[in-house]
Structures are given as C-alpha cells and as structure tokens.
Amino acid sequence: MNKIKNTAEWFKLDNASKIYPASGNTRWNAVYRVCAVMKERVDREVLQQALDVVIERFPSYNVILRRGFFWYFLQGATIRPVVTRESDYPCRQFDFMNREPLFRVMYSGNRIMAEFSHCISDGNASTNFLNTLILKYLHLLGKKVDRGPLLHYNDAPKEEEFEDSYSRYYNPKGSKTLPENYSAYHLQGTKELKGVVNVTHGEVETAKLLELSHAAGVTLNEYIIGALAYCLYNKRKYDAVNKNSKRPISVQYSVDLRNYFPSQTVRMFSGFVNVLLKETSPKDMTFEEILQKMAEESRIRCNKDNFQNFINSNFSLEKNWIIRAVPLSVKNLIMKIAYYNQADRVSSLIVTNMGRMNVPKEFSEYIERYELIIGPQKYDNSTMTICSFNGKTVFTFVKTIKNSYLEREFFKFLTERGLEVFVNGNNGGRKND
User: Fold this and answer.
1) CA distances from 411 to 105, 375, 394 (A)
2) What DSSP element (H or E) covers 369?
3) pLDDT band at residue 380, thresholds of 50, 70 and 90?
4) pTM, rounded to two decimals
5) What DSSP letter does each residue of 44-107 carry, written as one string?
6) What number of other Cβ atoms are within 10 A of residue 355's Cβ?
7) What average pLDDT does the segment 118-135 reach?
C-alpha cells in the first residue's frame, strides 16, 4: 500500500458530527452505505485504479479520528485506501482505536459500495463521491460518459467543500429549537446477535408511486411517511398494553440542508424532521386520516425557519463557555445524554429519502439501481431509506431484530394499491451477490 500526500492535513469535526464519536458504543458508531448495482460484474483492479485518482479529489474523506483534550478531530490517513471484497454484514463499525479510516470502498459481484462514518459526511454528499468514482471507473473501462452534474475527478478540491456549513449559518441572536419532550413508540422484537444486520430491498415503479401520492393530494415523501405511520399504528393497536403501546408514533426523516442554505460542502450538512401521530383513542383511524395528519405536521415542521432554529440550537451548545472548557471525557457524557433524549428516544423510525439520483444520462446504460443502507441505530430497531433512479424506486429496510413486521406490512400496503413490488435481501445472511 502506498503512502499518500495528505497526511499533514487535519479537519475539525463539524457541529453535527461531534455527537457521533461521543455517543458511540460497541454496537453502534453511525455508519451508512451508498451502493450502485451495476449491470455487469465489477472489475476490482479497475475500481482500485479509479479510487486511487478519486480519493485525491475528496481528501476530507480519507481521514482517521483522533482524540484531543477538548474535542475529537480528523487527521489525514497515512495509507492509500484499498478496495476490498465485501465479506461481512453491511455497515460494519469503524475501528476508531486502531485508527481505521472513516470510509471504505468495497465490491461484490456487480455491486460497488462505499461506507462512511457520519463523522465525515452525509448520504447526499457521499453519493457525489460514489458517482465520481463510478464516472472514473467507466472512463477507465473505455465507456463514453459525460460528467453531467458530477464533481469531476480531475478538478481540484474547492475550499468551500471542506467548510462546516452549520458554523457558517449559525445565528447567535436567532431563535432556537425547543427540546422534544416525549418518548416514541418502538417496534419490539428479539435482538439479533451483535453485528448481524438484516436488510430488505423492495423495488417499485416510480411513476405508479407518484400516481398514488398525487391522487391523495400529497408529495411522494408525505405519502410514504403516512404509509409507514399507518403500518406502525396498526401494530401498536395489537401490542400488549404497556408504556410503549401508549406512546406517540414518530417518523423522523432527514433533510438535505443544502436545499435551504446554499452550500457546496461535501461534509455533513443535514437536519431532520420528527412527524408525530399522537392519537391513542380507541376509535380506529383510516389510512386517509393518518396521511392527512402526518402531511399537515410535516408541512408545519419542514421549513427554513425551523431548520435555522435547529442550527442555532445545536451550535449554541458548542459555543457555551462551560461546555468548551470541560475535558472531552465530560463532553462525551453530556453528548450521550443529549443524543438519547433528542434522537432515538423521540423517533419510532428513521427515514432517509435520497430522491431521484442526479447523474449523467449515460449512467442508465451501466447501472441497474442505487441502494442506501443506514446502519443500525443505537436504540431504534429499524431504519428505512428511499432511492429513485431510471424509473425505479428502491425502499431499503434495515433492522437488528428478528421481527419483519414493518417491511412486510409496508410492501403489502403498496401491493394492495396496485403496485408490483420486487423484494430481495440478505435474509439474515451476509450479502446478496
């Protein structure tokens, strides 16, 4: 393995990323995967050649986590990254202690996969990396593909791509988000063994999915959130009566803040919205009633003002002189409590919708579909992601329990409304080749 030239570079963790290393444990350190399913088997040697070039375009990714006295920070890795064959469950933890770089590139059969720690990026930004990697890979294979909207591998990195956009848009005099004060309903089930990650993909035609949402007078995102809440609502009705069965259903979905605040950063710059269904009355609610309530709640919460308040609230904690002065060991304890209270505790399910992939038109000749896998959460048992490409939408459910209720009922819900769903997954195994 060759040495690389960015070993002296170091990066501060951006505001939102600081909570992840502080809150991690032996089962969780916030890992996710972006994947392209190619139409032909992947050539590992050519992919390595592509990675050798592309990593120089994204120097803020090939980094290791270092521990300072007051904060964690990122330092350029000394070893050039190597493409490996997938041999484990998705979203394996990064080894912080042994200074493992916080991203990896893998292949298996016709899949090209890149996994990242949330310490260095978010799904929207790191998809840019994957697509730039595929662009170079295809060019090395002699394919004629325009760069389209992609960051080109021959371009020099821009300074704006490394910025902490949370810091840029922080308004010290602005309003702040009030802390959420509830515990959400959670699916229960037998825990899998440590490290086991169950993944299920379901593919549908995007046009037919849009027809359903338009007919209901909502966006596609609102329709999916409503359908998930409906499935969880039906499950909650038949749960044994306890504290969990009386809690509100909360679907948390991520938002790319670049859509609200101009930013070119390839680092973390996302927010989230919690959409609640509070009703616990004995009267059964219809899907249409649940959809309307979830859509209304989403529209109230998903706006620039609320995201500005979210940025102000998060960054004000970092600016607090008491927090700044205490050593990292104390900060870790504070952040663990903060993460539990404002993340997994207040969400029944975490959803990430990547939307339609913005790639060169020629990609459709070589790529079958995209998949996004959000790794196991610290407390939540399930996550779901959505990717649309070339007329198809892929839903991916990830869970660390044996209970398959949610994905089964969600795909049944779509089938009952006329959609044909093609399902595949690892079925408890390590991978699908």
Assistant:
1) 30, 21, 11
2) strand 367-374
3) low
4) 0.92
5) HHHHHHHHHHHHHH-TTTSEEEEE-SS-EEEEE-SB----EE--S-TTPPP-TTTT--SEEEEE
6) 15
7) 95
Secondary-structure breakdown of the chain: helix, strand, coil percentages, each rounded to the nearest 5: 35, 25, 40
Distance CA(407)–CA(405), nearest Å, equals 6
Question: Quick count: other Cβ atoms within 10 Å of Cβ 33?
Answer: 27
Vertex 32: Cα angle to 26 and 37 (nearest 5): 135
Distances (CA, A) of 171 to 130, 144, 266, 325: 33, 46, 22, 22
Strand partners, 325: none
Strand order in the sheet with 111-117: 84-85, 103-108, 111-117, 31-38, 367-374
**Helical ranges in 144-247 per DSSP H:** 165-169, 206-215, 220-237
Short-list 341, 15, 308, CA closest to 169: 308
Identity at 185, one-letter amino acid code = Y
pLDDT in tens, 325-345: 777 777 777 777 777 666 678
Residue recorded with tokens 């009705």: 237
pLDDT at residue 21 greater than cutoff 80: no
Tell me if 176 sits within 8 A of 313, measured CB to CB. yes
Q: Sign (positive/negative) of CA torsion 224, 227, 233, 239? A: negative
Instruction: Read off the tokens for 401.
Output: 């329990």
Higher pLDDT, 403 or 230: 230
Which pair of structure tokens corresponds to residue 141? 């294979």
Count of all residues that appear for the chain in the document? 433
pLDDT (tens digit per residue) in 150-206: 999 999 999 999 999 999 999 999 998 877 888 899 998 888 888 788 999 999 999
Across the chain, mean pLDDT equals 88
115's tokens? 């996994």
The tokens for 198 are 């169950």
Average pLDDT (222-236) is 96
- 114 strand-pairing partners: 34, 105
What b/e readout covers 145-178, taking b as 16+ CB neighbours within 10 angstroms? bebeebbebeeeeeeebbbbbbeebbeeeeebbe
Residue 318 backbone dihedrals phi, psi, to 5 degrees:
-65, -35
